[in-house]
Amino acid sequence: MAGSGSFDAVVHGLPRASAAGVALRWSGTALSLTSMGSALLFGLYILAFYAAAASDGDMARWNRILPRLYEPATPAATLAIGLHFGAGGLILVLGAVQLIGALRTRYPAVHRWIGRLYASAALLAGLGGLGFIAMKGTVGGLPMDLGFSLYGALMVWAAAQAWRHARARRFELHRAWALRLFALAIGSWLYRMEYGFWMVATGGAGHTDDFTGRFDVVMAFFFYLPNLLLVEAFIRARKASAPPAVKTAAAVVLAAATSFVLLGTYHFTKDYWGPAIVDWLRS
Hints:
Layout: H1 8-11, H2 19-55, H3 75-98, H4 101-106, H5 108-136, H6 142-167, H7 171-185, H8 187-202, H9 214-222, H10 225-237, H11 244-282
């Protein structure tokens, strides 16, 4: 928001005249702030968990999250998934930094260089995940293979488009693709958060240890496709030509998403992310 806050990289261009426009602007800012903080924490957790396991020589700890991530007989697949996790943790941290509009307006050169690193890390994360699936497949079989492969391909595509439009100085298109990329980047974070809530709410209905249950099949796609739909709705609702009812509906959805993220971030930081990060920093 030009002249009124530090998150104009996300909500730049929202009309100020109508109450619906103001509600959408503030709900977008609230979700941006919440997502930024939560993604930063989760990115640090990913780096802490996987880097700590590798430095301790206990690679088998990787399998606590998903079975068969690490197997001594497939070193190339281990390298690919390690690249995916390392770059994925980096894009969560960098993506959170890139949402700070003040950085873009006051230090554009820093924003550009972080953006190049961010896009490169997103490309590596996507390619690393695709490489792992091609060499080894996923624990959940064909549905998970398809869902995760589409996720990796979309991440590579969004990173390339954000980079391409930035170089061509098509900044509105660049911001739109940067938002799509961030929506994809937080998918791995939402995957764990959504599973956690589902386990608490239903006791794990539809989930199996080999990730082939009905809920597992849905989750192979659900952890990123709704994110894209939400960000597409936001991109279109912020246009001046959008009807007030559309802006109001978008603001309500964004407020609900903010509440979900806040609740999940509190519980996961208290029980999982926080202790792992603290242990990593102390080691």
